[in-house]
Amino acid sequence: MTHKPEHDLSDEKWQAILSNDSTYDRTFIYAVKTTGIFCKPSCKSKAPLKSNVRIFNNYLEALRDGFRPCKRCKPTGEKLPNEEWVAQMKFYIDNHFHENLSLEKLADHCHGSPYHLHRVFKQVTGLTPVNYIQQLRINKACELLDHSNLSIAEIAEQVGIPNTPYFITLFKKKTGLTPAAYRDKQIKEMKEEKYHDESIS
Questions:
Q1: Looking at the domain 11-126, which fold is it?
Q2: Model's pTM, two decimal places?
C-alpha cells in the first residue's frame, strides 16, 4: 500500500465511527490498516483501534491506496465477490498468524459470521481457515528451522503455537518429521551439498 497524506481523523468522525452514524456515510470512508479493509461510518463491525484508522473522502481513494471494501457494509454499493473476501481473510491471517487466531476472531476482523466465513473460504481455496493457518505456521516454522538457531519451543512461540508438544505433533503430522528431525535432515543435506561442491571444485 502506498502512503499518501492522510485526511484528519477528527473527534467528530471518530465518534461517528463508534456510534455507526449513517448520516456520515456520504461524508467519508474509513479504512483499517491492520485488516486492509475500508468501511462506511455506519458499519456494524467491531470498532477498530483509533491508531489503525485512516480517513478517505470516498471509496475510490481507499481503493487506490490498496484497501478492499467491507463484505458487511458494502461501501462501494456493490456486493463483494467471494474471491476478494477470501483475499481479505488471507491478508489478515498472513499478517497475524503468530497471534492467537480463532475463527471467531477472523470473522470479527473480516466482517462476517464464522459459519459463512468458513464455508466461503473452503469453497474458494479448498482448505478450511484452520488448515490454512496451520500450513502457514508450519511453513514459517520450516523457514526458522532452516535459517535460525532458535530452540523448538522458541520457534513454536514465534509461529503462534505456544504449546510446544502440540506444535511438535502438528509439525510431524504435516511434514512426516519432528521439528528436531527436520532440522537434522536439513543440516545433513547442507553438509552433503557443500562436500559435493568442494569435490567438484
A1: DNA Methylphosphotriester Repair Domain (3.40.10)
A2: 0.65
Q: What is the DSSP letter of 47?
A: P
The pLDDT tens digits of the residues spanning 162-193 come to 999 999 999 999 999 999 999 998 888 777 66
CATH of domain 130-200: 1.10.10.60
**If you count them, how many residues does the chain have?**
201
Residue ranges of the chain that CATH labels 1.10.10.60: 130-200
Residue extent(s) of CATH 3.40.10.10 domains in the chain: 11-126
To the nearest whole number, what is the mean pLDDT of the chain? 88
CA angle 175, 181, 182 (to 5 degrees): 50
Question: What value does the CA radius of gyration of the chain take, rounded to a whole number of Å?
Answer: 22
Q: What is the pLDDT of residues 43-70, one digit of tens each?
A: 988 888 999 999 999 888 999 999 989 9
Task: Give the pLDDT mean for 5-32.
Answer: 86
Residue 41, all three cell numbers: 461510518
Q: Which three cell numbers stand for residue 65?
A: 491506496
Catalytic residue among 39, 70, 73, 142: 39
Active site residue 39: yes
Order the strands of the 29-32 sheet from edge to edge.
53-56, 29-32, 37-39, 68-69
Q: Where are the beta strands (DSSP E) in 36-106?
A: 37-39, 53-56, 68-69
Which segments of 69-109 does DSSP mark as H helices, in order?
Answer: 82-96, 103-109
